[in-house]
Amino acid sequence: MTYRLLIAGALALASGAxxxxxxxxxxxxESRSGxxxxxxxxxxxxxxxxxxxxxxxxxxxxxxxxxxPDAVMFTPQMVYxxxxxxxxxxxxxxxxxxxxEVWSSCDGSLMVSHGAWQHPNNGSGWFTTIxxxxxxxxxxxxxxxGGDLTAPLAAPEMISxxxxxxxxxxxxxxxxxxxxxxxxxxxxxxxxxxxxxxSVDGSLTWQxxxxxxxxxxxxxxxxxxxxxxxxxxxxxxxx
Length: 239
Hints:
The protein is an alpha+beta fold.
């Protein structure tokens, strides 16, 4: 199967999952409880392109291309990704990964992907990535989080794409384009104990906390079914 067909299949699956999750949305993506322009399939397609770029251009080259200026990753300590990746040699064989699930804010300004990875030396694990919409409508990753597994993560029958509830019109902040606020130079010092972010409309937030022994946890909250709920919670290491 060609890469183009893989993307087409994934987008079809994502669209189906979105329709099942949100029967109250119109064909334009407008919710009966408020306007939603979220499109989880856009991040699914970005994940597919990102994974293919790792195979075609090299693992770290792909990570740098798809990272926001202020993206962070763990090496194992929290670092700004662009600084750590700059000039770094690619491994001979890149890791492979597949996206399984996507959670989106109502406005689509922030999304979270989760899936499985396989190391060329037969190791496997999971990953969670925070994606932020840029001025041109593309997505760049803000946080790369992941860990090892003793057994491979089971693949789902269908890639799921879910969207948070839209805030009440009166409660919504003034719409602004969601772009990375960091600069490639002069970034503020990282606080390894706490790093966080949120969507423009506030319907999805994330927070990663770290400990002195190198462990770290990510919690993603979103507005769903009228309540603030945990969409995803990941932990790496012993806290």
